[in-house]
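Hi Q.,

Before the meeting this afternoon, I wanted you to have the iron/sulfur cluster prediction in hand. No need to reply - just skim if you have a minute. The sequence and ligand are here:
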Amino acid sequence: MLDPHLLPDNVLTTQLKKVVNWARRSALWPMPFATACCGIELMATASSRYDLARFGAEAMRFSPRQADLMIVAGRVTIKMMPVLQHIYQQMTEPKWVISMGACASTGGVFDAYATIQGIDQFMPVDVYVPGCPPRPETLIEGIMAIQRKIDEEGLPPSGLRRPLQLAVEPSYKPSAQPVPVTIGGQLVR
Ligand code: SF4
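Predicted structure with the ligand bound:
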């Protein structure tokens, strides 16, 4: 917060697009479409340990008209796809789509006629998050990839966008779970 005593003598200048895009990237509202185990990692991403709120994207919305970031976490069947497309169409523009995990991006191990072998055959995907399941760090990296793109944009474009089609690489170092706890040099857990 700005110190009110500084305001009479100090002026901050910036560009309108920077302020608008700062607000846009700091307030992504996800629409979770979680159908399987990847959904549990999505929940973990919003929990206190990973704290998605640090990136302004923790306000999950289950009404598509209040959401601008669809996260598809898990496998999607042919019967589900019309519903998923309907939800996507109802979301506000500009909007983004993250395909989270192998199943959403490729069908994963479910090479069956009833499972969609990649949701990008039916809807525009902006970021592919790899893994089975992806760790929360990787999903956060995918959200940050969208934030970086928003920062680079001008004012929000009108009309429909082309999908970004970015692929995220895992950038974390796995550590032992649970984390060992020592007290006075003694390992207690
Ligand atoms: S990618 Fe792996 S963890 Fe995610 S929904 Fe498919 S099987 Fe489950």
